[in-house]
From TrEMBL:
<dbReference type="GO" id="GO:0000466">
    <property type="term" value="P:maturation of 5.8S rRNA from tricistronic rRNA transcript (SSU-rRNA, 5.8S rRNA, LSU-rRNA)"/>
</dbReference>
<feature type="domain" description="NLE">
    <location>
        <begin position="13"/>
        <end position="80"/>
    </location>
</feature>
<dbReference type="InterPro" id="IPR036322">
    <property type="entry name" value="WD40_repeat_dom_sf"/>
</dbReference>
<feature type="repeat" description="WD">
    <location>
        <begin position="147"/>
        <end position="195"/>
    </location>
</feature>
<dbReference type="InterPro" id="IPR020472">
    <property type="entry name" value="WD40_PAC1"/>
</dbReference>
<comment type="function">
    <text>Required for maturation of ribosomal RNAs and formation of the large ribosomal subunit.</text>
</comment>
<keyword id="KW-0853">WD repeat</keyword>
<keyword id="KW-0539">Nucleus</keyword>
<protein>
    <recommendedName>
        <fullName>Ribosome biogenesis protein WDR12 homolog</fullName>
    </recommendedName>
</protein>
<keyword id="KW-0698">rRNA processing</keyword>
<dbReference type="GO" id="GO:0000463">
    <property type="term" value="P:maturation of LSU-rRNA from tricistronic rRNA transcript (SSU-rRNA, 5.8S rRNA, LSU-rRNA)"/>
</dbReference>
<dbReference type="InterPro" id="IPR015943">
    <property type="entry name" value="WD40/YVTN_repeat-like_dom_sf"/>
</dbReference>
<dbReference type="GO" id="GO:0030687">
    <property type="term" value="C:preribosome, large subunit precursor"/>
</dbReference>
<dbReference type="Pfam" id="PF08154">
    <property type="entry name" value="NLE"/>
</dbReference>
<dbReference type="InterPro" id="IPR019775">
    <property type="entry name" value="WD40_repeat_CS"/>
</dbReference>
<keyword id="KW-0690">Ribosome biogenesis</keyword>
<dbReference type="InterPro" id="IPR028599">
    <property type="entry name" value="WDR12/Ytm1"/>
</dbReference>
Length: 437
């Protein structure tokens, strides 16, 4: 077997490669002797050669390697010494597909900064821009729908879950804007149109007194919550029927002379107060709890029934983004005015210190998002123009995406194997074929 580098002068260790991957990526689990100075590149070469020995049509893939629950990011020799692992016994090394994008799609151009992106709908990528428009993009990069109505930049966009069911005929959305309003949209995806079809909001949510920075949907109900520069978090009903009995008070008005239906205005169901600066980001992963991040340096967890904060950490930094996910959907990832991505575990009693800190960015972190199906993986975006993919089993990014020529303002996962991001270069960038599962 031909290996790169000076391996003959290195001592050899007995290893057994194991994997949860399916055929044809499984190889025999018999032990073999390999040089101890191999890094993941050399290990990947060995695994690819062993797979190819049983399948001549095999095309090499990059692999990552796990020893005792941790990704290997140095030579085997260095790793064994650092972890105090004996090289005298047979070493079990698990291999997984490396989480690196293998394809860069052509960027989707906007007329201004791309300030919001959502990959929550499997059929469309959703974006919001400083030009005040929201857009829906199909997989091929074609803009199919234009959301028209906001008077200023869109800061955030969210798919409304509608009882947790993704409709085959319509998409329900919420947008938050610098114009101090939220708007609710129903996009009839199957209706024939000429690209791009213009869509008008069915409801305008008014009540914030400053720019609305973030909006997120309830996990399984027709509600959204929002965070604003007015320091408050508001909860809203999103029912589009206009029926009496909605918890939010509504009134209807006509939208233009040729509007097909009237547009409602609604007030918030409730307001959560306690932050003393801009509420920059909100997350709603559980029915009873909302999480918020603020420029007052705090992250809070709110009990919806009582309206009180049940967990509060002072980070010492301006916080611009947060997401809740990871192991058991309980880990809180957040980033802000320094280049460090921090992760807290609120289940740990008596400690408010981060359980992980990742420090490879060089500027303000603007976005962080857990992968929807992996406990280990999340992404971050930064003013340094980079999107980084992280795995909790190593302190280094597993991939760095440099598709933007300016600040990254937003980022998300789409369809599990694609990262979508928007930036100050007015581009929606898509990096696909990422192997997470």
């Amino acid at each position: 077997m031909e290996l790169n580098g000076d391996v003959e002068t290195s001592r050899r260790v007995q290893v057994r490669f194991i994997t949860k991957l399916k055929s044809p990526m499984k190889i025999p689990t018999t032990s073999i002797a390999i040089p101890s100075n191999l890094t993941r590149m050399g290990l990947s070469t060995i695994v690819n050669d062993l797979i190819k020995a049983g399948n001549s049509d095999w095309e090499a893939l990059p692999f990552d390697f796990i020893i005792d629950g941790e990704l290997v990011r140095m030579s085997l020799e260095q790793f064994l010494l650092a972890k105090g692992i004996s090289a005298e016994k047979i070493l079990e090394i698990e291999y997984i597909k490396a989480a690196v994008p293998r394809k860069q799609e052509d960027p989707c151009l906007h007329d201004d900064w791309v300030s919001a992106v959502s990959g929550a709908n499997s059929r469309f990528i959703l974006t919001g821009s400083y030009d005040s428009f929201g857009r829906l993009w199909e997989a091929g990069g074609q803009c199919t729908h234009l959301l028209e109505g906001h008077k200023d930049a869109i800061n955030s966009i969210s798919v409304i879950n509608k009882k947790g069911v993704e409709s085959k005929t319509s998409v329900h959305l919420a947008t938050a804007s610098k114009d101090r309003t939220l708007r609710l949209w129903r996009v009839d995806a199957e209706e024939p149109f000429n690209h791009p079809r213009k869509v008008t909001a069915y409801k305008v949510l008014k009540g914030h007194t400053a720019s609305v920075q973030s909006v997120v949907s309830h996990p399984s109900d027709d509600m959204v919550c929002s965070g604003s520069w007015d320091h408050t978090i508001k909860l809203w009903q999103t029912n589009d029927s206009g029926a009496e009995g909605d918890l939010a008070s509504t009134k209807k008005r006509k939208v233009g002379t040729d509007a097909k239906e009237s547009q409602s205005e609604a007030e918030a169901v409730s307001t959560l107060t306690g932050h003393t600066q801009c509420v920059s980001s909100v997350a709603w992963p559980e029915h009873e709890r909302i999480y918020s991040a603020s420029w007052d340096h705090s992250i809070r967890r709110w009990d919806i029934e009582t309206g009180q904060s049940s967990w509060d950490v002072n980070t010492g930094k301006v916080i611009n983004c947060l997401d809740v996910g990871g192991e058991g959907s309980s880990l809180i990832a957040a980033g802000g005015s320094d280049p460090i991505l921090r992760i807290w575990d609120p289940r740990k009693p008596g400690s408010l210190a981060p359980v992980f800190q990742f420090s490879s960015h060089t500027s303000w972190i603007t976005a962080c998002k857990w992968h929807g199906k992996s406990w280990f993986h999340l992404l971050s975006g930064s003013y340094d123009g980079k999107v980084m993919l992280w795995d909790l089993r190593t302190a280094w990014p597993v991939a760095v995406i440099e598709s933007h020529q300016d600040k990254v303002l937003c980022a998300d996962w789409w369809k599990d194997d694609c990262v979508v991001s928007g930036g100050a270069d007015s581009k929606l960038c898509r990096s696909s074929e990422i192997s997470i599962l």
